[in-house]
Amino acid sequence: MSEGERCEIASEDVTKALWRKYRKTAEYKSGRHYSISSIHPLVRTGEEKGLNDVILNFAKELEHTPNIREQLALRQENDWIDSWKTMHRTLFGYVYRKCGELRPRGYDVRFGAPGDEELHHIPLGGAEVYNELYALARRLCGSINCVEITNIDEVCRFLAEFHYGFIRIHPFFDGNGRIARVVTDQLAVSLGYVPIIAGFPRNNTDKKHVYHEAIHDCAHDSTCRVLSNWIKIQLQDKMSQIT
């Protein structure tokens, strides 16, 4: 599902705590008893709280890890996958009853505009998702220590290729962009740079459009040049603000 797209979440899929709050709203009292909009303020609040928890956990990890790059380089493929599952549980724990699991086979994925699923070669789910995610984690294990950190273009290309790779696989039913942004920041910090996109302003239509176009361009360019340049601009802008 693309970020911000309106859809309905069935009552049996949301947490009991969220549903209790929803039952007190005007929407419920007006007759919407079986589902809640994915863009309802209660859902948005739960997701924002979950994202804040993810970022706080990331900050604590950095605080207690003297050499984050060295620690991340020691991870095995399943360590990365388990950490991404944990992030998903944390991100959506206030909203969904069931989260932190990879997409099952046959799950209806909506990625961007109609037809983009084929353009980006989104895996169908189940074993296909796990196998591609495992391959992405393997590339990460083999490359994180090989990045020349003094070469910002190489760093941004590394971040862009991972970022697109994760989003393209679309391993979870929702929140893939948000988790990809947190992990991209985690990798940026491990390479000595500043976090830039974990709290990306999803409600800023213009910025979101440029970001999504950069991701879309990766389907045609395996070097992810446009996305790499976009990340470089964000990095340089953020670094100029703190120097």
Structural class given helices, strands, pairing?
mainly alpha
Strand order of the largest sheet: 1-2
CATH topology-level name: Fic-like fold
Looking at the overall shape, the CATH architecture is Orthogonal Bundle
Number of strands: 2
Number of domains: 1
Q: Give the CATH class.
A: Mainly Alpha
Key structural traits:
mainly alpha, 243 residues, 11 helices, globular, Fic-like fold, 2 strands, 58% helix, two-stranded antiparallel ribbon
Q: What does this 3D model show about the protein?
A:
- With 243 residues, the protein is mostly helical.
- It has a single domain (8-24, 34-242), classed as Fido-like domain (Fic-like fold), CATH 1.10.3290.
- The protein is 58% helix and 2% strand.
- It has eleven helices and two strands.
- It has a two-stranded antiparallel ribbon.
- It is globular.
- The mean pLDDT is 88.
Blueprint (SSEs and pairs):
Elements: E1 8-10, H1 16-22, H2 26-29, E2 35-37, H3 41-63, H4 68-73, H5 77-92, H6 116-119, H7 127-143, H8 152-169, H9 176-190, H10 205-217, H11 225-242
Antiparallel strand pairs: 1-2
Give a nutshell description of this structure:
This protein is mostly helical and 243 residues long.
